[in-house]
Write a structure and sequence with these properties.
Strand 1 (174-177) and strand 2 form a beta hairpin. The protein is 78% helix and 3% strand. The protein has one domain (2-293). The chain is globular. The chain is mostly helical. It has a two-stranded antiparallel ribbon.
């Protein structure tokens, strides 16, 4: 793993110096309007799917906030999470917005934990299947061969299916970890977690495939995106800035040129990271203004 991270860091430095940025911007400007519209539509669909993640937490905890309110908070926290990291988005935004609406800290913690579990549950199954069925030829410097990647894929699938089996058959339904009670959901709720998470990751892969204009095929685009997602998480760089680009260049150049790949990833960031952040910022400001209005009315 350390070899992988060092390889990505070195790749970023060398590629940044070698990139012909004018050619990248020319490639961005040459995108057909239909491609950009399709990518933006898929991005909106993905954010809508993710916004339903906290509805699972609502069902799991039994809190009484309305579904549109919950989805709005989830959308805002996800957009900030993508661009500024987990502590700001997934945790900080949820804690602030939910607490202002009267949820207790323990309930918020369970909602956040359920949402994170939902996200990575689908990742484990989808990435596991991708690594098993469409293993990528990784650079030698990563020290991970095709066989090891398939073993990792099998392990990821086993974890996801093991969670479902635990929810279905475990007689013990609650544990206490670090002072927090953790209860297993039923199989139906766990199945919903898995389905919506897979749908979200699958749509994200479709966005990347559209922006690459189907030059490598959907399975490859999805596999590289899934690899880049965990690389960005491990790098601890906010938004995985530069890491996702480095992974795509490392795995797909050749056959594709660096210019084509970097242009595609930058457009992916534009439609999936930056545009939703602009919308989420406006929505967050509206939520803050509404919260202050309610507080003033309560004080009066």
């Amino acid at each position: 793993m350390s070899g992988f991270l060092l390889f990505v860091a070195a790749l970023l430095i060398f590629q940044a110096r070698a990139i012909e940025w004018r050619e990248v911007f020319d490639a961005i400007g040459a995108y057909p309007s239909a491609v950009l519209l399709t990518a933006a539509t898929l991005s909106a669909a993905s954010h809508l799917i993710y916004s339903s993640f906290d509805l699972v937490g609502r069902r799991y905890t039994g809190h009484a906030l309305r579904a549109p309110t919950v989805m709005g908070i989830t959308f805002v926290s996800y957009a900030f999470n993508l661009n500024l990291g987990t502590l700001v988005g997934a945790v900080g935004m949820r804690a602030r917005l939910y607490s202002r609406l009267g949820l207790e800290a323990a309930t918020i913690t369970r909602v956040v934990g359920t949402s994170m579990l939902t996200n990575w549950l689908g990742y484990f199954l989808l990435a596991g299947l991708a690594f098993l069925c469409w293993p990528l030829a990784l650079p030698a410097d990563w020290h991970i061969g095709v066989g090891a990647l398939q073993v990792l894929g099998g392990a990821l699938v086993a974890v996801a299916l093991g969670y479902l089996a635990l929810c279905a058959f475990s007689r013990r339904r609650e544990w206490t970890v670090a002072g927090h009670e953790i209860g297993l959901p039923g199989l139906r709720l766990a199945g919903i977690q898995l389905v919506i998470s897979i749908a979200n990751w699958a749509v994200m892969g479709a966005i990347m495939d559209v922006l690459l204009q189907d030059k490598v095929g959907y399975p490859t685009a999805l596999s590289v995106l899934l690899t880049g997602a965990v690389a960005g998480l491990l790098s601890r760089v906010p938004a995985g800035l530069g890491v996702l680009e480095g992974v795509f260049v490392a795995l797909l150049a050749p056959p594709l040129s660096n210019t084509t790949l970097i242009a595609a990833v930058l457009m992916y960031r534009a439609v999936y990271y930056w545009a939703p952040l602009a919308v989420a910022t406006l929505l967050y400001l509206a939520m803050e203004a509404n919260a202050r209005k309610l507080a003033a009315a309560a004080a009066a």
